[in-house]
TrEMBL record:
<dbReference type="InterPro" id="IPR028325">
    <property type="entry name" value="VG_K_chnl"/>
</dbReference>
<keyword id="KW-0812">Transmembrane</keyword>
<keyword id="KW-0631">Potassium channel</keyword>
<keyword id="KW-1133">Transmembrane helix</keyword>
<keyword id="KW-0472">Membrane</keyword>
<feature type="transmembrane region" description="Helical">
    <location>
        <begin position="216"/>
        <end position="235"/>
    </location>
</feature>
<feature type="domain" description="Ion transport">
    <location>
        <begin position="144"/>
        <end position="362"/>
    </location>
</feature>
<feature type="domain" description="Potassium channel tetramerisation-type BTB">
    <location>
        <begin position="5"/>
        <end position="98"/>
    </location>
</feature>
<feature type="transmembrane region" description="Helical">
    <location>
        <begin position="140"/>
        <end position="164"/>
    </location>
</feature>
<dbReference type="Pfam" id="PF00520">
    <property type="entry name" value="Ion_trans"/>
</dbReference>
<dbReference type="GO" id="GO:0001508">
    <property type="term" value="P:action potential"/>
</dbReference>
<dbReference type="InterPro" id="IPR005821">
    <property type="entry name" value="Ion_trans_dom"/>
</dbReference>
<dbReference type="InterPro" id="IPR003131">
    <property type="entry name" value="T1-type_BTB"/>
</dbReference>
<feature type="transmembrane region" description="Helical">
    <location>
        <begin position="247"/>
        <end position="264"/>
    </location>
</feature>
<keyword id="KW-0851">Voltage-gated channel</keyword>
<dbReference type="GO" id="GO:0008076">
    <property type="term" value="C:voltage-gated potassium channel complex"/>
</dbReference>
<keyword id="KW-0630">Potassium</keyword>
């Protein structure tokens, strides 16, 4: 995670670049954080190389409002500050408020101070709603709401498990939505319907209050939420319109199992593990390549050592490859085994080769996971100590919003 070090009017500030990117895509600081070092030097008034700070010759007492805006998404206007100067400072930093921008474009004139304050109040309401829907620790009601949503996710997974179990036993009554003239599975169907309705409303609400709709749709957690709702809609429609099309509905039930990943919203370890796997994708792809190469070579070795032996299971390359893969991955179904001494030595070398490949891949993923854990803990400590020392922020509620 990267920080942006600023010096505004002699006062030092430090902001996470991700905080700037999440709030407003058109602000001056957003463009400044996206630029390289050479462009940043041209955009600011001076650069202090020893402190790695970019200097802006603006009043620090007004930038405190800007800094507070980026951290909390809210603006508190003191009574002793002229509102005209506050509006001018927001214009300088190119902080756009959506309702105000639309009204300004229609009128074609300069921004009025009263309209500015009204737009900021609207933005504060939206930010509060976003904190309520996205941050479980933003308040007691938010914690209760997210605990309820997590419980509903578990219940929806259990209902899906009941459908899959009934389908495995050959009972189609629970695998499909009930007919209009039947009461089979009506309770589970009703429970799942209302849960999915709440999921859809939660998704729509978070989409409406998010400041950047494009960033929201690119968020993997939002993609999971959309896929959960859309897969249920397709499954319910197919069950109603083509009740006898059992194979397609069962395939959709498989896709609907993605809803269990919604729990990642409430578990930082799941998100961290997903990030570690994504960062280790080169190591994982290399492990697949090594398994394929090793499996191919050892498969030919098995065909050579076991050729012509009575009762040998290694009669084809594909079977030898299957045995090689399950041995390298330490699965070992124990349904086949080489019959010759050379084949057993080959199998031992194959197992050691597979253990080495998997151990290297797991160590890479664990190393990335530990780095992310240490980085998160370090960032939380920096944020707390910086807010505690900052002269512009003394509210403990703002500390909890960053933790």
């Amino acid at each position: 995670m990267f920080f942006l070090y600023l010096n505004v009017g002699g006062t030092r500030y430090r902001l996470k670049e991700q905080t700037i990117w999440n709030l407003n895509d058109n602000s001056l600081l957003y463009k400044f954080s996206k630029a390289d070092h050479c462009k940043r030097v041209l955009m600011c008034d001076a650069y202090f190389e020893a402190e790695n700070e970019y200097f802006f010759e603006r009043p620090a007492y007004l930038f405190n409002l800007i800094f507070d805006y980026y951290i909390t998404g809210m603006v508190t206007l003191p009574a002793d500050l002229p509102r005209e100067r506050v509006a001018e400072e927001f214009r300088y930093w190119q902080i756009n408020v959506e309702p105000l921008n639309e009204q300004s474009a229609d009128q074609g004139g300069p921004l009025e101070v009263d309209e500015f304050v009204e737009a900021v109040c609207c933005l504060n309401c939206r930010r509060n709603a976003q904190a309520f829907l996205d941050l479980p620790r933003s308040g007691i009601l938010a914690f209760v709401y997210h605990a309820l949503m997590a419980g509903l996710i578990v219940i929806s997974v259990l209902t899906l498990a009941l459908r899959a179990e009934s389908s495995a036993k050959g009972d189609r009554r629970m695998a499909l939505l009930p007919n209009r003239n039947s009461n089979d599975g009506s309770i589970i169907g009703a429970v799942e319907f209302w849960i999915m309705l709440l999921f859809a409303l939660d998704l729509i609400g978070r989409f409406c209050v998010h400041p950047s709709k494009g960033c929201f749709l690119r968020n993997p957690l939002a993609v999971i939420d959309v896929f959960t709702v859309v897969s249920y809609i397709f499954w319910a429609s197919l069950s109603r319109l083509a009740h006898d099309n059992y194979a397609w509905t069962q395939m959709l039930v498989l896709f609907m199992s993605v809803r269990v990943l919604k729990l990642a919203r409430y578990c930082s370890h799941m998100r961290r593990m997903a990030s570690a796997l994504l960062m280790s994708r080169s190591s994982i792809l290399s492990a697949f390549l090594l398994i394929f190469v090793g499996g191919t070579m050892f498969s030919f070795a098995f065909l050579w050592t076991e050729a012509g032996q009575p009762n040998t299971p290694f009669a084809s390359y594909y079977f030898a490859m299957w045995y090689s893969v399950q041995t390298m991955t330490t699965i070992g179904y124990n349904n086949v085994a080489p019959v010759t001494f050379a084949g057993r030595v080959n199998s031992t070398c194959l197992g050691l080769y597979g253990i080495a490949c998997i151990a290297c891949t797991i160590s890479s993923v664990v190393r990335k996971y530990l780095q992310l854990s240490e980085q998160d803990a370090h960032n939380q400590q920096i944020n707390y100590s910086y807010i505690k020392k900052s002269p512009s922020m003394h509210n403990l509620d703002q500390i909890s919003s960053l933790s």
